[in-house]
Amino acid sequence: MMGTMNFLQAINLALKEEMHRDEKVFILGEDVGRRGGVFLATEGLYEEFGDRVLDTPLTESAIAGVGIGAAMYGMRPVAEMQFADFMLPAVNQIVSEAAKIRYRSNNDFHVPMTIRAPYGGGVHGALYHSQSLEAMFNSIPGLKVVIPSSPYDAKGLLKAAIRDEDPVLFFEHKRAYRLLKGDVPEDDYVIPIGKANVVREGDDVTVITYGLCTHFAQQAATALEKEDISTHVLDLRTVYPMDREAIVEAAKKTGKVLLVTDDNKEGSVLSEVAAIIAEECLFDLDSPVQRLAAPDVPAMPYASPLEKYYLVTKDKVESAIRDLAQF
Amino acid sequence: MHKYERAGLQKDDLLYMYRTMLTARKIDERLWLLNRAGKIPFVISCQGHEAMQVGAGMALERGKDYLLPYYRDLAMVVHFGMTIEDIMMSNFAKEQDISSGGRQMPGHYGSKKLGIVTGSSPVTTQVVHAAGYALAGKMEGKDFVCLTSFGEGSSNQGDFHEAANFAGVHRLPVIFFCENNHYAISTPLDRQLSCVNVSDRAKGYGMHGETIDGNDPIAVYAAVKAAVERGRNGEGPSLIEAVSYRLTPHSSDDNESTYREADEVTEAKGRDSITTFAQYLKELGFFTDEDEQAMHDEIQAAIDEATDAAEAAKYASPESALLHVYDQ
């Protein structure tokens, strides 16, 4: 069975299937119950699963910390942070606790918890409903950070995250929720965490990216076919820990690498990708590694022209690939 | 009827209570000696907290209820099943440390099999985990309770308030056990709270709150026992504040002469439960000077043996530092 659905429906389906599969799975977060989540990611689940979909007080640190406690006990909590921007009060619980519990207890305790959070801009969300926070969690051993790029991946990766024995931050691009549609099998499948995915084979330029930017990279690559530019696109899928082998292979494939993120440039997860390429691929490169990212300003402005200026778009990706092809 | 009888305790319980308090005190004293002799890098003390910790711990059911302690809870974890050797292995940071295999500083207790949940150094994070355990128990239809402890300074942390509110809203069987020893490192109570008691805060979270004498293990036992029963009966969380005094500096790296007078400490030592509870047992005729001496000797011998064993034990291999980041 295969159905066409959007990214949000794929998330909802993954949650529903996992709650049916394993009664230890439960959801907690703000407005996730009767409201079905402010983006409707959990729509219909409260009606189906009752108290396993728990409306919490406004209390991000407790959403994470209660989830951690329940996970240590043996449950499989899926916590929702209403917006990635609002998860900063929970960082102590995520970084000091979730990430370190297995290590600090010498493997006695562990935290099989998923934290979902909508991230990214382009929906007039301004500074505090648009941020990409993955870089903040990108050097925290003990955590896994997953960012799907399509409805198919969203379902398979979320199911993998829920079944994972360690804490997984699962960032969902909020603009992708309704923008991206695709075929999603109705059956049970999981996509392995920690493995990148070649979404397009090409010979001239390699684009390494993740999340919604993967979509822009594919669109740009299609447009550039007319100009006889062949683009290779690697979707990281998991930004931490990174799939080093896949990055090296993709970089060597064309020798020209463009890294794309909708986070701001300095210290983004791309910096680590660039470092891996510098360590492993120097003699295979035909051009300097390029990064396309948002500007280094604190966050995304509200007014449309400013927001548009800030955003990474298909056109910007296309232009950056073209420049690199001509290098 | 004696106070201990009203609390549902018997002579053997009181003797066990005292033995556990004394064991913790004597371990603690040994740790300071080892630290000053340069054999262990760090000590964080339970002295002054023994009565409240053993009283509270005894109100729980071992093997069923969960403990989410903080770094001063030596006496509580000894009651919950950590042996003297376990404590020594941890203080020497040896491979056999059951809390962490020598990875964490001492005082960061944890053992799944004992029902003691692993803790960290940023204070009060464990209080939220207690609500998580309790929520899981409620979802699974279990009737266990979770006791989580913390200092009065920690009752100002956001995580305390988030956990208390969460547990209050969802009627979770959590016992918030505040060990008020008057000092958060150097900062005294009146610079930590503008209310009179930490337990005043219970009202804001719709839970039972009370303040008790932390030097009286029977009073603490009775208060926590009642909280346990409320929790098991679905009546939600409680905030129990036990008041005592920190008889040592904050840690082996602290210099308390910069912030409190020696007289104040001396005066508090006059209320030390290790002395007053022994006296109480003698007044009841449960305990003689000879019994006391024998108990001291027996515990001391066990501590000597555990110290030697821990000193001689091996460290985890250096390369083992790479293990257990993720499931393997």
Descriptive notes:
The complex is a heterodimer of chains A (327) and B (328). Chain A has 327 residues and is of the alpha/beta class. Chain A folds into 2 domains: 2-185, Thiamin diphosphate (ThDP)-binding fold, Pyr/PP domains (Rossmann fold, 3-Layer(aba) Sandwich), CATH 3.40.50.970; 197-325, Rossmann fold (3-Layer(aba) Sandwich). Chain A has helices at 7-21, 45-49, 60-73, 91-98, 101-104, 151-163, 176-179, 212-224, 244-254, 269-280, 304-310, 314-325; strands at 2-6, 25-29, 53-55, 76-80, 114-119, 144-146, 168-173, 181-185, 197-200, 205-209, 231-235, 238-240, 257-264, 290-294. The mean pLDDT of chain A is 97. Chain B is 42% helix and 10% strand. Chain B has 328 residues and is an alpha/beta fold. Chain B has helices at residues 3-6, 11-36, 50-58, 74-79, 84-91, 125-139, 158-169, 217-232, 262-269, 273-283, 289-312; strands at 66-68, 146-151, 174-180, 183-184, 187-188, 208-213, 238-243. The model of chain B has no long low-confidence stretch (mean pLDDT 97). The longest helix of chain B is centred in the first third of the chain and has 26 residues, at 11-36. The interface between A and B is large, with 44 and 42 residues.
